[in-house]
Amino acid sequence: MKFSTLPPKGTFDVLPEEMELRNWMQETIRETYEENGFAQIETPCIENLDLLTNSEGGENLQLLFKILKRGEKLNLSEVTEEMTENDLADLGLRFDLTLPLSRFYANNRNDLLNPFKAFQIGNVWRAERPQKGRFRQFTQCDIDILGDESIYAEIDLIFTVTKALKRLGFENCKVKINDRRLLREMVNRAKLPDGDFDSICISLDKADKIGLQGVKDELLGKGFLTERVDHLLALLEEVKAQGLDAFEGEEAEDLKLLIHNIEEYFPIEFEPTLVRGMGYYTGPIFEIESEDFKSSIAGGGRYDNLLSKFQKESLPAVGVSIGFERIFSILMEKDFLIPERRKKRALVFTKDEDLQRAIAFAEGLRDRGQIVSLVRVFNKMRKKLKQLENTYDQVDVIRDETVLGDLLEAHEL
Amino acid sequence: MKFSTLPPKGTFDVLPEEMELRNWMQETIRETYEENGFAQIETPCIENLDLLTNSEGGENLQLLFKILKRGEKLNLSEVTEEMTENDLADLGLRFDLTLPLSRFYANNRNDLLNPFKAFQIGNVWRAERPQKGRFRQFTQCDIDILGDESIYAEIDLIFTVTKALKRLGFENCKVKINDRRLLREMVNRAKLPDGDFDSICISLDKADKIGLQGVKDELLGKGFLTERVDHLLALLEEVKAQGLDAFEGEEAEDLKLLIHNIEEYFPIEFEPTLVRGMGYYTGPIFEIESEDFKSSIAGGGRYDNLLSKFQKESLPAVGVSIGFERIFSILMEKDFLIPERRKKRALVFTKDEDLQRAIAFAEGLRDRGQIVSLVRVFNKMRKKLKQLENTYDQVDVIRDETVLGDLLEAHEL
Q1: What is the reported pLDDT for A349?
Q2: Is a pLDDT exceeding 80 seen at residue B405?
Q3: On chain B, which terminus has fewer CB atoms closer than 10 Å, C or N?
């Protein structure tokens, strides 16, 4: 029996050239996060299923990969129609890095600084219908600050993540910010029902695609009163014109402080229709858009209530996630060249007797920082050299004493 | 409802100090593999279940984490007693990196060099009964050479992996080598049944724990004829005395060439009772033992038949895996200090007005290669400074113009 050689639907193999770029991206991100004082942590890729299914993961809960119980815990002869998937499964693959971070913090807080500045690089899984740019396994790069209720946490995060994006080659970006509480204030001022806040936000979120008129039509279609929808739209126009001065209170003052401290380094602006999806956001929210690629490449916000799932006290928390796969595909498409990439050379030997000297010679070159692959070629020399020349920046052949001598001399070894 | 804050049974959270060590280990291994000409690749953590369950994974197949089918594919009302787990699940978590590599090679071989020198660093999952040093999710670091039938592949692998181990601080190690074909030759010469080869090997594998007399007792207990067991033991004694000269044929000559090329760099010896578990090994096998910690820290062998699961032609292949978790726990236990670890400093600001200058100052230090965490402290100054001093190598406080001025001057900024 021969098996399919394809990876599972919606997942992908990473070839050597792709891996080089992914490693460089991860290293650049890690280096930036580290130098700005964030500490890397890791949690398992699997979590207990009751934790995952009782999170506020929104639509991600429909996309869970659940892991079958094992051994005695799974008795197939006792399966009945009333049973649900959760009777058969006890673990699941994580769908983001934020929920595991919250569990991690509650589990280890005695060993952690307060505030705790964390970063994570890891895979997450979502059983999405496969389509271009959507994967079932993909890498996330998150930074979070736990335990700081001040707007400084947002400033620190946005400063750090925009610096990482610059180093990844995304100079031409814009940070858009808003605050869930300002959104709610507008909904309340327009006397729209507070209980429909989420539904109203879902419509508002489409403003950049369908325009404010489109938002209005959608809200009317949902049955909200014309007068109140008009009021909300008028408020939005007013806020768009006046900016944060349209509000009183510390939420607006905080956003002004945020803008004041970031704008020197990166374009940033208040965007009153920015919503972002995840249900657990409670305060400021933000998104970073690449102007060159008309694409959101990072985003995050404050989620002050998530920690209370695990511990008595709630804990202020704010996080941002880089769209690693989006950035990777943009860089691949534009044939991005990794800066300071090391040259690769192949050193070919043609008989067993040359091997020891070939090893010693290769080691001499490696000690000088070169990447050297020793390659044994005993036949089909011409064809194989051609293949090697397609892959390596330089190919040398040890054919006899003379050549090796020349090589040694040329490299002063 | 409050949830358990513990990670799932048999898995672990990685704290910042542990992460630093793990990153340094991975970077050291990656750097060594790369400079010796191996190319890093990655495959998904999940594979199709029929691929995993039809592999020669031996006992690992009992330890599979299986992933429940999703949506319409899973109909709980149609579950019957005759159904097996494989009717409910369609994916599984990989239990090693070798099987995915074989699939990867078959899937991408037109884009890969021949021979292909690959390395992988990634997690694997096995539902083992949790015990000290055994985890259900753990990291493996593998290098493999596909497409080279010569002993040079083993030389290249062992040379590269021992170099990595040296750099990880394991100078005092020994490579033990054997060949599955020499084991079989001894079993055949002793006229023991070839069909019981695996069972005989399982007993032989215990020689380092129970001695040759213990092996003899176990084989007699399994019902093999005394005369033949005695013959096998006599052969083993003879081979222990004469070494590889006890054999004729190219297997022994190959092992001699291997020893000849490695011994200059690392202690290596022939060990006729070395077996190694995995069912798919076909030729040379090897294990690297730390003398200081009386522990096997790497191992591998040749598996020439695995590729034929995916493609018509079989392909010579050999690989070695570093026991990453074992090495990590040894280094943690001996309080290993990471070489050239960068110092971490905290820069404390105490009021919003200082923030902009604090950011600029921190950036100046970071440009000089320092790790600087900006920390906001608005109250409980003494307590918080104490905490910071426990974590950071240096703590500076911006209290007023003067202090900042002094700091700027001291750093010539």
Answers
A1: 92
A2: no
A3: N
Contact A33, B373 (CB under 8 A): no
Give the model's pLDDT for residue A406. Answer: 60
Over residues B257-281, the mean pLDDT reads 90
Of B8, B22, B103, the CB nearest to A47: B8
What is the distance between the alpha carbons of residues B230 and B220, in angstroms, rounded to a whole number?
10
Distance CA(A9)–CA(B272), nearest Å, equals: 45
Residues B245 and B314 in one domain: no
Which residue from B minimizes the CA distance to A262?
B356
- Cα–Cα nearest to A38, from B330, B229, B346, B278: B346
Tell me whether the omega of the peptide bond preceding residue A8 falls within 30 degrees of 0, making it cis.
no
- Let me know if residue A366 belongs to a domain: yes
- Looking at residue B26, its amino acid is Q
Q: What pLDDT, on the 0 to 100 scale, is given for residue A410?
A: 60
Q: What is the pLDDT at residue A72?
A: 76
Residues of chain A contacting B83 with CB distance shorter than 8 Å: 76
Using an 8 Å CB-CB cutoff, list chain B residues near A388. 113
Confidence of residue B412 (pLDDT cuts 50, 70, 90): low
pLDDT at A80 > cutoff 60: yes
Same domain, B19 and B148: yes
Least CB–CB distance from B103: residue in A5, A48, A310 = A5
Answer yes or no: is the ipTM higher than 0.90: yes
Omega before B130 within 30 of 0, i.e. cis:
no
Angle at the Cα of A153 (from A94 to A288), degrees rounded to 5? Answer: 65
CA distances from B178 to A128, A340, B195, B270 (A): 48, 42, 20, 6
* pLDDT above 80: residue A327: yes
B379 occurs within a structural domain:
yes
Half-sphere exposure at residue B341, Cβ-oriented, CA atoms within 13 angstroms: 16
> Which stretches within B78-120 are classed as H helix?
85-88, 98-108
- Name the pTM for this structure: 0.93
Give which of A308, A254, A312, A313 is closest to A283, Cα–Cα. A254
Q: Check whether residue B325 and residue B212 sit in a common domain.
A: no
CATH number of the domain at A392, please. Answer: 3.40.50
Are the C-beta atoms of residues B37 and A374 closer than 8 Å to each other? yes
Provide the domain limits for residue A401: 344-410
Give pLDDT tens digits for B38-62: 999 999 999 999 999 987 777 788 8
Cβ contact (<8 Å) for B355 and A152?
yes
Residue A98 near residue A299 (C-beta atoms within 8 A): no
| Per-residue pLDDT tens over the stretch B291-345 | 888 889 999 999 988 778 777 778 899 999 999 999 999 999 999 999 988 899 9
| Two tokens, residue B207 | 């020689």
pLDDT reported for residue B77:
73
User: Closest approach of chain A CAs to the CA of B40, in angstroms?
Assistant: 6
